[in-house]
Design goal:
By secondary structure, the chain is of the alpha/beta class. The protein has a single domain, classed as Rossmann fold (3-Layer(aba) Sandwich). About 40% of the residues lie in helices and about 20% in strands. The chain is built from six helices and seven strands; from the N terminus they run ααβαββαβββααβ. α2 crosses α3. It starts with a helix and ends with a strand.
Length: about 170
């Protein structure tokens, strides 16, 4: 009997932590990340789609699905004439290149690998947590008294990313 109760307790705790991401932050990022992506000069103007991969581990699939739903509900038709396509994937060196990746939670070694792949392939990498920019991811959101884009100036310079001057003026640099 005690074993059954312990097992039920573990299931209950696992379900409580199933969505471990702050919903307010996810909502803000779902609204702002697609706009930030479009302010990159590397986005193909002639393409009619904006492809985004949410990079998540299997344990974070519930949060990734929620995040995907938020993005698509914020932009149900198009943004700047582009239809948004969002896919959830675990990281591998992808053969097809998306316009951007949004990284949820990974360990440091894997974050460095993701950032290196994205930067060498000129894919915009956005981090759920600004701390992950220390591993080489390109952008995130600063949430304080005001919400501002965070850009990794070292990555911008090293890999020659370019953005609309408006975004550069608004941003805080990491």
């Amino acid at each position: 009997m005690i074993q059954k109760l312990f097992f039920l307790f573990l299931l209950f705790v696992a379900n409580l932590s199933a969505l471990e991401y702050d919903e307010t932050i996810l909502e803000l990022e779902a609204k702002l990340f697609p706009k930030m992506i479009l302010l990159s000069d590397g986005i193909k103007k002639e393409s009619d789609t904006l492809s985004i991969y949410i990079i998540a581990q299997e344990v974070d699939n519930k949060s990734a699905e929620y995040f995907k739903t938020l993005i698509l509900s914020n932009y149900p038709k198009k943004i700047s004439g582009k239809k948004i396509e969002v896919s959830i994937k675990e990281f591998v060196a992808f053969k097809t290149k998306p316009d951007a990746i949004i990284v949820l939670d990974y360990d440091g070694e894997k974050l460095t690998e993701i950032a290196n792949w994205a930067n060498t392939h000129k894919v915009i990498s956005l981090a759920y947590d600004p701390y992950y920019m220390s591993y080489g991811l390109l952008a995130s959101l600063y949430i304080g008294k005001a919400t501002k884009p965070y850009l990794n100036s070292a990555v911008i310079k090293k890999y020659d990313f370019s953005f609309n001057p408006y975004l550069l003026k608004l941003s805080k640099f990491y």
